[in-house]
What we know:
- The protein is mostly helical and 153 residues long.
- 61% of the residues lie in helices and 0% in strands.
- The protein has helices at 2-9, 11-15, 18-21, 26-43, 53-58, 64-80, 86-91, 118-128, 131-134, 139-152.
- The mean pLDDT is 85.
Amino acid sequence: MKLILYNALIKPYMEYGIELWGLAKVKQLKKINKLNKMAIRMVFNKLRKDPISDLMMSNRILTFKMLHKYSLLKLGYEIANKYSPTSLQCIFELEDPTSRRSLNFKIPYLISNLRKFPKFTLPKQWNLLDDAYKGISTLNLFKRSTKLHLLNA
């Protein structure tokens, strides 16, 4: 019941636009992470001194950093399998289908002050993912297996 409460009231706010604001400065991310941990403690009725990592692991809740990575990978899957709007598919380009890296995105030339933008971070995270995950046939199966992979990493 408590996990349902977290997933209904807190998680949507944490996930909304995380692909963009998950790349904010460390100082801002620490504040957001602190709020997330405080909300988890409130939902699960834990004290501030109680460690949160075991609670998150036992309830399969991703840390903020892992949630950002998970959202980027999910978006990469949607783009690679043409589930996303065409405007997004035009931004990200897959490698040549005849090459052995055909499931990878092309990484554009990096301009140092832009390297944190999703145009650069999404292909990098996607290309680091094992090809076995990239070839999964359904979005739900991809989300489930990727989440388990990130929790066990």
